[in-house]
Design brief:
Helices cover 8% and strands 50% of the residues. With 380 residues, it is mainly beta.
Length: 380
């Protein structure tokens, strides 16, 4: 019984973390609870019809071939990468929001399940799925030139770009029982090296240093110590003792913990590269089976803008029906502002300049954060 409970907890942690650390494709609807908006008609008012786009955005996207699957990533402030499917083939297009044009970058004869750009947009990563237990990784230039291709025996793959050296990607290769191998993919030298890291979900906090929450599998808990470790070494050290979740950026570290003994508030705290606190804020949190629901968020480090969905009150996620507010928090000024109300808890992806955000499980809508207007990217 103890072993079964342990497997359940490990699988739960892995699935929830997938949703929050990578652009999830296989369990967004099941693991993250989507609260029903209080006034669905209000959301409809926010979404502009295709005939009324902002002057600088030409919408909706006219799909050249196949059926729209999802938006994968921003490539610049006005360019989006998106996937279409036609039978068993997938296509990657580059869409220019200002010109209203789509350019074919890549065609795959097997389905594409993951598409993301590196932090500086120097590389584009594509994961295809030739079979259930095989994942193929292709790295492209921004022009669509194939730089490398490699196959992995795997049930699921998770990726983490090294923002200090974008020719390196950490790959967590999961088996069906959620055991995993950690691999370091070197694009420049077309090599793969197996690493020993005690947890599958890690973030780069230095050119050769990673951080991870060291969950105690023998005594499962919601919180664990945040550890740092040099790649290729055995020694690890504690950064913070009690962390629920964290995110790392080039010069900023963010942790989520509790603010009060009653655990009614989730505390988001930001630190500089020397682990000195910059600022902090708290929001209500929702509980799930054996855990907390952490609403979707994204961070534009250049602008110092952290955007997240915020529940109106604490409670149980399954019974929560009051919707979410989209708020923006300035980590340098320590101030927050309301963007929109009555939204679902859906993935968010900020543009490089931080002035727009993609939202939705397929990033199918776009928000102008200045005017607070929402537009459909693809005609329904």
């Amino acid at each position: 019984m103890r072993l079964n409970n342990r497997k359940i907890i490990i699988r739960y942690i892995i699935q929830v973390t997938f949703l929050l650390l990578i652009v999830s494709f296989f369990s967004a609807c099941t693991q993250q609870q989507e609260a029903k908006p209080r006034h669905p008609e209000d959301i409809d008012k926010n979404i502009k019809p295709p005939s009324e786009p902002l002057q600088k955005w030409k919408l909706p996207i006219e799909i050249p071939e196949g059926e729209f699957y999802k938006i994968g990533s921003w490539l610049s402030d006005h360019q989006l990468l998106y996937i279409t499917n036609l039978e068993q083939s997938s296509y990657v297009y580059l869409y220019n929001l200002q010109e209203g044009t789509s350019k074919l970058l890549y065609k795959s004869d097997v389905p594409i399940v993951t598409l993301q750009a590196s932090p500086s947009k120097e590389f584009i990563l594509i994961q295809t799925s030739p079979s259930t237990y095989e994942g193929q990784v292709i790295v492209l230039s921004p022009e669509g030139t194939e730089l490398m291709k490699q196959s992995f025996t795997s049930y699921e793959l998770a990726f983490e770009w090294n923002p200090y050296n974008e020719s390196e990607i950490l790959i967590s290769s999961f088996n069906e029982d959620w055991t995993y191998n950690m691999l370091l993919l070197d694009i420049e030298h077309s090599t793969t090296t197996e690493l020993t890291i005690p947890q599958p979900f890690i973030k780069w906090i230095g050119i050769d240093e990673v951080a991870y929450i060291n969950w105690d599998e023998a005594s499962p808990s919601l919180f664990g110590p945040l550890m740092s470790k040099k790649v290729g070494t055995e020694e690890a050290k504690v950064i913070f003792s009690e962390v629920l979740q964290f995110a790392a950026y080039h010069n900023t570290l963010m942790t989520i913990a509790v603010r009060d003994e009653e655990q009614l508030q989730a505390a988001y705290t930001f630190y500089n590269k020397d682990k000195m606190q910059i600022s902090s804020f708290s929001i209500p949190h929702l509980t799930m089976f054996s855990g907390w629901l952490v609403p979707f968020y994204d961070f534009n480090e250049k602008a110092g803008k952290f955007v997240t969905l915020k529940p109106l009150k604490s409670g149980e996620a399954d019974a929560y029906t009051d919707g979410f507010e989209l708020i923006s928090y300035d980590i340098n000024k320590g101030t927050s502002s309301l963007i929109l109300q009555d939204l679902k808890n859906e993935p968010i992806l900020l543009s490089p300049d931080g002035e727009a955000a993609l939202v939705g499980n397929r990033y199918e809508r776009i928000i102008n954060l200045k005017t607070k207007e929402i537009f459909d990217l693809v005609e329904k």
